Amino acid sequence: MGDADLLRRLFQENNELKVKVNSLSREIFNRGVQYENAEEEIRLIKLKLEQAERGALSTPGKSSDGHKLGHNSSQQVSKINDTDSSGVSKELEEAMRLLDRRNSELKQMREDLSRAHANAESLRLDKEKIDKELNGAQAELVELHAFRTSSQKQMDEQRLGQSKDGVSVTHEEFLQTKLQLQSADRTVEGLKRQLLELANESNRKYNEQQNQLQGADALIESIRREYDEFIQITKLENDAIREAQLAEYNELKLTSDRIKMEAHAERKRLLHEYQTILYSMQAQFEEFRVTSEFVYNTDMDKLADAIKSQSQRYEHQLLYVIQAKDKFYSDMMVAKDAKIMSLIEGSDMQSIMQKHEMEMEAMRKEHIREIDRVRQEQDSEQKSLVSLLQRQSANLEAKCDKLQQHSKALESRLRDMMTTVENKNRLIAEKDEVKAQQDSEFSTKIEDASRKMRLLTQEKEHLRHRIIRMNLDARGEGDNSLDSMVKRLTRETAGLQSLYDDLASKYETTLAAEQVATRRAKEKAKLVEYLEKECARRNAEYQSMVRTFEEFLQRRAKQGRDDATRRSRLLSGIHETSNTSKPDFMADPKGILKAHIPKPGDASPSMVSPTNSTALDKSELERGYTYLRRFKTLSRAFATGDLRAVHLPGAPPSAESIPGPWQKIPLYKQLEDVSLAVAKIYEPPPELSSAADGPHEGGGTRTKIPVYMPDTNENKSKLKQIPDVKLYKTKEANQRSSKSEESQDSPVKDDFLCVVGGNKKSR
Q1: How far apart are CA 390 and CA 437, in angstroms?
Q2: 3-state secondary structure 351-376
Q3: How many angstroms separate the CA atoms of 402 and 225, rounded?
Q4: Which residue ranges run through the membrane (predicted)?
Q5: DSSP characters for 45-100?
Q6: How far apart are CA 701 and CA 628, in angstroms?
Q7: What is the secondary structure of 566-622 as a DSSP string?
C-alpha cells in the first residue's frame, strides 16, 4: 500500500506540473500578443513623429510667404504658425510620454518573462527529481517481487525435498509435516489473495491515471482550439481597426490637401489685392515709404518676439520631457529593485531544497519502518506457530508416555495394522507426488500467464504510445515535452531581446536627431539675435547719415545762395542786407524736408554770371549733386529693403574714398549680407521692380517706385506695357566678375547691396 500511495502522489505531482506548464505557455502567448500590440503602437507613434517633423520643417516657408503679404497677412500667418507649432509640440510631448510608458511596459514584460523562465526551470528540476524517485520506487518494487518469487521457490523446493525424502518418516514426522503443509497452504492462500488485491489495485490506479491523462490531453486540445479561435478573432479585429484608421487617415489627408489648396487660393487672392493696392499707392510714394519702414520694423520686432517665445517654449518643453524621462526612469528602477529584493527574500531555493530532502528522508525512513514492521509481523507469526507446535508436541509426548503402556498391548494390533498403514502411506505418497506435480504445473502456468500478461500490457502501452505519437505528428504537435517548451521559450525570449535592442537603438537615433534639431534651433535663434542687432545698427547709421546729409545740404545750399547773392550785389552795386528769405522749395506743409537738386537752368542770369564762375565752384557744385544723388539712391534702397552698392554715372572713381558716414566701414567686409541671411531662412520669392514716370517738382522726371511682383506670365505681359522698367536678378559669384568687365554705365553689384531703380534726369 505504501508503494501505491507513493505512485499516486508522484502521478498527482506530475499532473500538477503539466497544468503549471500549460498555464505558463498561455501566459507567454498572452505576453507575445501584448508585445505585438506594443510594437504596432510604437510604429504608429513613429509615423506621427515623422509627420510632425515634416510639418515643423514646412513651417518657416509659410511664415516667409505670409510676411510678404503685408502687416495683416503676416499677423495671420504668424498666428497660424504659432498654433501649428503648439500642436506639434503637444503631439511630441504625448509621443514621448507614450514611448516612456511603452518602454516601462516592455521592461515589465521582460521581468515577467524571466520569472516565468525561472519557474519553468524549477518545475523541470522538480519533475526530473520526481521521475528519479519514481524509477527508484519501481526498482524497489521489482526487487520485492523478485524476493517474493525466490522465497516461494525456495519453500517449494524444501517442500518437494521433504516429500521425496519422506518415505521412511515416522508417525510424528508425518503429523508434523502435515501440520506444516496445512499452515503453508494457508500462507499461500493469503499471499495469493494479497497478490490479487495488489494487482486489482494497481490496475485500478493505472486506469485512473490513463483516464486523467486522456482528460488532460482533451483539455489541452480544447484550450488550443479556443486560443486559435481567439487569435483569429483578434486578427480580424486588428484588420478592421487598421482599415478604419487607414480610411480616417485618407480622409484627413484629403481634408488637409483641400485646406492647403484653399489656403493657396486665398494667398493668391490676397496677393492680387495687394498688387492692386500697390499700384494704387504709386502716386503717394513719400507717405508709403514712411509707412513701409514702420511696418517693416514692427514685423521684424514681432517676428523676433515670436522666434524668441517659440525657442523658449521649445526649451521648456525639452526640459520638461527630460525631467519626466528621468523621473519615470528613477521610479521604474526603484520599482524594479523593490521587486528584485522581494523575489530574493521570498524565494529561498536552499531552504526549499533542504525541506524537500528532509521530506524525502522521512518518506524513506517510513518505508524502511514499514518493511521492518512487516518482517517483524512475519517473524512473530512464525515464532507463535513454532511455539504452538512445540506445546502441541509436548502434550503429545505426555500422552505418548501415558500410552506407552497401552502401546505394548497394542503392538500386536499395530503389527497387524502396519501393513495397512504402509499401504495407506504409499497411497498418500503417491497422492502427494501427484499434488506436488500439479502445484508445480500450476505455478509454471501462472508464471507463464503473468509473463504473457506483462508482455501484452507492455505491447499494448507501446502501441498506444505509437498511436498517440502518430496522431500528434499528423496534427503537427508531436514535440510537446517540457524541454522543447523551454527551448521555444528561450528562442522567443532571444527574439524579444533582439527586437527590444532594435527599438532601443532606434530610440537613441531619434534622441540624437532631436538633439541636433535643438542645436540648430539655438543656432537660428543666435542668428536672429545677430540680425536684429545688425538691423538696429544699420538703422542708427542710416538716421545719422540722413541727419548729416540734411545738415550738409542745408549748409551748402545756404552758402551757395549767399555767395551768389553777394556776387550779384557786388556786380550790380547793391549792398547786402542781413535778412535773407528762406526759399519756398525747402518748405513742405507736412513738415518734411524735401531735397531739391538744383539744375543749371534753374539759376537766373542776374544771380550768377557765367564769367565769374570758377573751376572750384563747379567742382563743389558737382560734388553736391553727387552727394544728393547718392542720398536719394540710399533712401530708396532703405525704403525697399534692397541694399546694394551703386555706381553713379558721371561720378569720379575717387568718390568712394571721400570720408563721411556714407562710406563702407571695414566691419561690413567681415559680416554677411542681411538680405542674403534672411533669404537663407525664409526663402522669399523673386522680387520685381516696376515704376511709372511722373513729373518732378523741379521739372525733371520722377524716380521709379519699387514694386514686389511674382514672376508669372501675367505680370511679365503687364511689365512689357510699362516703359522704363528694369528687372534686376541676383547673379552668382562667377557671373559678377564677367558683369564687372562690361561698361561702367550698367549698375555695379557687390556682396551687400543691389540697385533698386534708376534715376532719370532731363538735360
Answers
A1: 31
A2: HHHHHHHHHHHHHHHHHHHHHHHHHH
A3: 91
A4: none
A5: HHHHHHHHHHHHHTHHHHHHHHHTT-HHHHHHHHHHHHHHHHHHHHHHHHHHHHHH
A6: 16
A7: HHHHHHHTPPP-S--PPPGGG--TTS--------TTTS-TTT--TTT--HHHHHHHH
Note whether 321 and 96 are within 8 A (CB). Answer: yes
Task: Tell me how far apart the alpha carbons of residues 344 and 692 are, in angstroms, rounded to a whole number.
Answer: 91
Q: pTM for the complete prediction?
A: 0.20
Q: What is the separation, in whole angstroms, between the first and last Cα of the chain?
A: 138
Q: Chain-centre distance of CA 94, in angstroms?
A: 13
**Which conformational region is residue 76 in: left (phi greater than 0), alpha (psi within -120 to 50 degrees), or beta?**
alpha
280: its cell numbers: 494704387
Closest by Cα among 14, 59, 33, 61 to 680: 61
Q: Rounded CA gap, 163 and 177, in Å?
A: 9
- Summarize pLDDT for 276-333 with one digit per residue, the tens: 766 766 666 667 667 667 877 777 788 788 778 777 777 777 777 777 777 777 777 7
Confidence of residue 592 (pLDDT cuts 50, 70, 90): very low
HSE toward the beta carbon, residue 712, CA cutoff 13 A: 9
Contact 586, 596 (CB under 8 A): yes
CA distance 694 to 329: 74
